[in-house]
Amino acid sequence: MLRRPKPTDSESDLLREQEQFLSSGTQSAVNIVRRPDKRRGDIASDDSEKSLGNQRDVVTIPDFPDQLPTLTPAPPKKSRFKKERVCFEDEDPEELLDRHDTHISAVLSRIIERDTSAVPVSFPAFTGTAFPKVLHRSTIQTQVMAPRGKKSIFASQIAAQNAKVRGAESQKDPLVSTPQASGSSTVDGPLLLSGEGLGPDKAEQTLKIHQENQTRLQGMSHSEILEEQKLLLAQLGDTDILKALSPVSPPPQREVCPDQPESKTVQPQLDELPVKPQKEWLHMDKLEPEKLEWMKDLPAPRRQGTKKAMQARFDFSGTLIPPAEDLPVHLGLHHHGDEPELAGYSLQEIFLLSRSKLTQQRSLALNTLAHILSKAHAGEYSTCLSGSVLASLLDAGLLFLLRFSLDDSVESVMSAAVRALRALLVSHEDEECLDATFHWLLGTAVFPLIPPVHEEEDEEDEEGLAKSKKEMTKEREERKLDHDVARQDIVKALLKMQLLQRLRYILEVVRPVPRTVLDVLEILIRIARHSTFAATQILDCPRLMETVIYEFLPCTWTPTSSPYPPSLYGLPVSTVMKLLRVLSSTGRHVCARILNSLGGRRCLSRFLAMEPSVLLLEPGEAICCSTEALRLWAVSASYGQASKLYIDLYPVLVKTLQAAQKPCGPSEPLQLLELQRITALLSLLTQVTHTAGCHEELQSALLRVCSYYCRSSSIICQPVLRAPSPVAVPSLPSLGCCRAQSARGLVASESPLPLFTALFYLLDNLTSIHRGLAKNVGLNRNSLLVRFILFLITAVTTPAVPSNPSSAHAPLFHQVALALLSWLLPGSEYLVHKLVSTIVFSHILLPEGATGGPEAATLAELQLQEKFTPLTGLGALLRDALSHLPSIRGCYLTHLAHMEQAVLSSADRHLGRNPWLTSQLLPELTGPSMPSDWPFLPLVSLYEQAGVRQGGGLQVVALPAGALQSVVYCLQWLLLLESWREQALKTVPAGAKLARLACIFLCSSDLFLEQPVQELTWALLRGLTQSGRLEAIDLGTPPPGLASFHDLYVALLAQYEAVSFGDALFGCFLLLPLQRCFSATMRLALFGEHVGILRSLCVSLEQLPVPLESFTNPPEDSLPLLGLYFRSLVTGALRSDRCPVLYSVAIAHLNAFVFSQDAVSQEVEATRRSLLRKTYYLTDEVHPCRLLLLYVL
Question: Where is the RPAP1 C-terminal domain (predicted)?
């Protein structure tokens, strides 16, 4: 049985199947008939007309040619009759017809009747019934039917009945007999001879030949007849002729030996079929078992013994089905795929099902995709599947599939597409975290969810660079294809595909069910969080926001009796208020449009003037609407807008604050919603305080709120359950919040941190404006607890440093400040400036300088009993660095001058200068405001200014003014951190530290020769090469900002060869990467390309900061490097008086290699013998290699 082609078959598989089909001789199931084009006047059309006998009258005109003259250009012939017609403009067709066909006899005379004289006439059979018997298919099929050919079923039945009647008549006629009935061996006439070609008397000649044959056969014996038959068969020989002449008889049954394998093409019995065919079924006369295989019972899923990955299959709820799980078929998870025994649908099959013609199948596929996307966002597949499900779906074209499905005319398919798009774009956990942190310090400010820009996107060819500069950015974006835009930014691609217009049509015209309405609103919220551009697109979409506010945020509505209304049209929806709040946070102008043009101010008055209990809504929805209205007002107040509304609603706000003192038991279901509403009110008061100043009328209310919430709070933060983070895609950024993390902890709905944060933030602002309020509130700003809370929660919004910190707590404050400096994100540049200028370089927070820290460092250095120490002790260097802390701070502030504009913009937000704020969106999140290796900033900045790469080398120009002092201050600060704040530089890899310090030698030709730089660099190098830190150096991983450490090392070699003057410090930096634990490429670069350095690399064994064993153990196994060692020794480039360290290393490795007794390969053995032979033939003048033998002896 031939196999059907599969989608996974390659071209070679299809060709092989085609050869099998052609060799089998099976008749094709489809016949291709090529019909001639009648409009083109094909010849085949004329032949078909002649074969049908369609003779037509031919009109001929005298003195005219038979064919039309050729015109230029010739008109196309669209009819097959045009070539036989000739018509002139000045000639009447009627006259032409009358002239050539004058009488009707010209037509009637050509009618010839068919001769029916020889056609037999059969009369119908006589029956005893009044009407003919009705023909039933069930009765006719059991009889022998005449061959139908292309006859219909009815015609075949009539022919079969006529054949039956003729058979009955022939049995009644005694004159008709057959040879089988008579039983004689002779017949009256020939059975094989027809008489063709014998002339007019063929009947007589045929009979004569037949009689002669009969006479000859009668005269022959039986043996002679068999002999002549064998002779005749031998002469014929052709099996086809024998088959044609031999009578058709059933094939004999042959015995099959048990040892021989049975044939593969065995016709199955009826008992083996899954269903027994019935005679009433159409087209079941010929059994096709391969088409009935799907009706058999499915085999049990097989367990694979290998660890090969299998295709993931999902059920309709998005749950991953194990491959070996046997599920019942009534669940609808089995289908006719490549693996019918496995339950579930793969992603490819779901995509195929989503393009089905059946509405139910399209809806089912889209709903399944929605469940899969939701679970993928939650990270449920991260431990089960290899790779990202989201990335696989997006690469397969999921975004375009959902966009096409939104244009479906069926509402169920459209709703399923909206649900799937919401599952793709929206992260419920991220929204919960953003709502929970809205009341934190600067919680109204959020980062835009813009994908990072790849570097390769900005790189263009040199030819197109000039042209691209002339074109505008908008034009370049419009020229991009949707597919290219979707790979970079999904939200931008959806905006380009006119998603907003389609969503407006769904809300305005389709008017879907509540679930779909909420999904559309959440999609709009996610698009608004993308950027200010996306928010502006939402506002500019015609009738979109007008429809949303008119339908789902009315000022008057009819209450519903059901908590789940069948339609949300005409009812307030809290999600719409949240959408307005998110849109307002994108910019001051957007907020003004919402308040003034779209009626946002009227909505605030409507939902805040009344208590949630009298809003004629479901209680939870009413509280949510009031909470979102307060948050929208807080965002508006952060721009200094809607300030007059505060005067109008002041009594309502005071009443709400007073109602907050009412005890709220933990059993009440609306407790969490009420707490969120109070927290939103405190955030509103904070923004109003920033805008309009402090109001004395709020003192009593604030005292009561503070005394209540600080005294009683029954909600306890529970530990956070760590869950695997979801796999995100670069084109769809998110916060990466998991359900397990957001359900518990600081951002949970039960956490008291949002309330306390908002309360303390408000109190801090009030007490900073009015100093007298601090005594009334009862808080001591100088107490340790309040300072710690204000420091952590408000992120050092107060510039004051603890005046009298104890020696035990001062290092803690300093460690927190140093850690916080590397954690602050864009938008917190003001905090970076405050930390650097007040806390980081404070003498008070470095008590080690006053408690014997330098002396202890000196004693520790003496206790090590090192062979070589810097010119100045470590203690003296630390004391000198402490004395220059103000200058060090000024140096770092100078290098942060490029952040001045960002610091000023961030200061407006942190200091509450609301009238100067333009947007609550923070700068694009590309990383921390300060890199983790910020203490090396002066060195890196000087390297970028002084060094210019050209042709793979490094060209050094003159140093800027004050560069030496800047380097000294940087090294002093690094020495302080490495000595007393080692944890502050834990995030910087040891290899990166070594690469940053190497910038000292690449910045100038003589900077590293200065005595302060030498002393400080020696101290830092000793600290990096201590026994506990040396093992942490990893040069295989590229340091941040470098492609590889090897490139930096090659630049160091070139610089040392040019300007080193044999400096020992520079030489130690070159020797460190040559240790045996690092890659051999750097040793090959030194001994192969820069072998001249060996004449000046005169670092002694005493000056070496690491043990010599780290260079010699384990033995070298690189044959090219061993050859270079041998060559440098033979040529005299490597000598003990010039380069003692590498001389000892080369001697040790060559001896270990040449005289090793280990079993090695043939190549290594040949190299070893070659080195021994060369060493033996060396003269005494080349004595270094002679020492190889003496070393072993």
Answer: 311-376
Cα angle, residue 240 at apex, residues 236 and 246 outer, rounded to 5°: 80
Q: Which of 951, 953, 947 is nearest to 1053 (CA)?
A: 953
Measure CA of the first residue to CA of the last residue in the chain; give whole Å: 80
Positive or negative CA dihedral for 34, 35, 40, 42? Answer: positive
Give the C-alpha separation, 458 to 460, whole Å: 6
pLDDT band at 962 (very low <50, low <70, confident <90, very high): confident
DSSP 1126-1178: HHHHHHTSS-TTT-HHHHHHHHHHHHHHHT--S---HHHHHHHHHHHHHHHT-
Strands (E), 494-605: none
Dmax (CA) of the chain:
150
Pull the structure tokens for residue 393: 């779906």
Place of tokens 């990955």: 309
**271-297 per-residue burial string, b: 16 or more CB within 10 A, e: under 16:** eeeeeeeeeeeeeeeeeeeeeeeeeee
| 960 and 950 Cβ atoms separated by less than 8 Å | no
pLDDT on residue 367: 94
For the record, the structure tokens of 1176 come out as 């033996």
Average of pLDDT values for 1044-1063?
A: 91
Q: Tell me the per-residue pLDDT of 1086-1141, one tens digit each, with 9 for 90 and over.
A: 999 899 999 889 899 889 999 999 999 999 999 999 999 999 988 888 988 889 99
Q: CB-based contacts of 322: which residues, under 8 Å, 6+ apart? A: none
Phi, psi at residue 948, to the nearest 5°?
Answer: -130, 120
Structure tokens at 463: 């030819």
Specify the DSSP element, H or E, that contains 686: helix 671-692
At 73 the pLDDT is 54
DSSP 3-state percent helix, strand, coil across the chain (nearest 5)? 55, 0, 45
User: Is the per-residue pLDDT at 1145 higher than 50?
Assistant: yes
Q: Alpha carbon of 1160 to those of 272, 412, 817, 1117, 1164: distances in Å? A: 66, 73, 58, 11, 6
Here the tokens at position 959 are 């140093």
For residue 774, count CB atoms less than 10 angstroms from its CB and return exposed for 0-12, middle for 13-18, buried for 19 or more. middle
DSSP calls for 586-635: T-HHHHHHHHHTS-HHHHHHHHHSS-GGGSSS-HHHHHHHHHHHHHHHHH
Q: What is the pTM of this model?
A: 0.68
Cβ–Cβ < 8 Å for 820, 795: yes
d(CA 871, CA 527): 63
Residue 696 or residue 860, greater confidence: 860
Distance CA 198, CA 578 (A): 106
Of 1042, 1043, 996, 1002, the residue nearest 1020 (C-alpha): 996
Q: How far apart, in whole angstroms, are the C-alpha atoms of residue 464 and residue 2? A: 56
User: Is 59 within 8 Å of 37 (Cβ atoms)?
Assistant: no
- Residue entry with tokens 């499905």: 405
pLDDT of residue 236: 66
Q: How many residues does the chain have?
A: 1193
Three-state secondary structure call for residue 839: helix
Task: Tell me what pLDDT residue 989 has.
Answer: 92
**Which pLDDT tens digit goes with each residue over 460-478?**
444 444 445 445 666 777 7
CA 306 – CA 301 distance, rounded (Å): 15
Residue with the bigger pLDDT between 577 and 1027: it is 577
Give the integer Cα–Cα distance in Å for 861 and 850.
Answer: 19
Burial of residue 930 (CB within 10 Å: 0-12, 13-18, 19+) is buried
> Can you spell out the DSSP letters for 741-758?
HHSSSTTSTT-SHHHHHH
Cis peptide before 73 (omega within 30 of 0): yes
Instruction: Give residue 491's pLDDT.
Output: 94
Please determine, for residue 51, whether its predicted confidence score (pLDDT) is greater than 90. no
Helix, strand or coil for residue 1125?
A: helix
Average pLDDT over residues 720-740: 61
